[in-house]
Amino acid sequence: MGSNLPVNFHGNLVNATTDKELSTVLSQAKAEKRPVVVNYGASWCHACRQMLPTFCNLSNEYPQSLFVNADIDKCEQETQDVRYTPTFRFYRNGEKVDEFYGTGAQRLRDRVWLQSS
């Protein structure tokens, strides 16, 4: 996954590289009552690399939501319960409201649309 994410025009795409960063970002979003989409993946995961461009493009299409890219190998404590990569989790008011894992660009687009409305 790495830290070289595609261009984001709204400042709503974050790369969490430590447990503290991930925890802080999620806490801030909760305080702001901002919807959050987290992409839990790994640099060695081909499917994660395949989905990353769609994830990043969606951050430009949904500026009101926060998109967080979290590497499970770097955020080990915060991602202990992630069993598959990529896993996408959707949070509202700090609570997980939806989740799916695997690939499928249209499926991700549909879920982001649903959880951002």
From TrEMBL:
Stretches assigned to the Thioredoxin domain: 1-117
Pfam families: Thioredoxin
UniProt cross-references to PROSITE patterns, sorted A to Z: THIOREDOXIN_2
InterPro entries for this protein: Thioredoxin-like_sf (IPR036249), Thioredoxin_domain (IPR013766), TRL33 (IPR044193)
Record Gene3D superfamilies: Glutaredoxin
SUPFAM superfamilies, per database record: Thioredoxin-like (SSF52833)
Protein name, UniProt field: Thioredoxin domain-containing protein
Species this chain originates from: Riccia sorocarpa
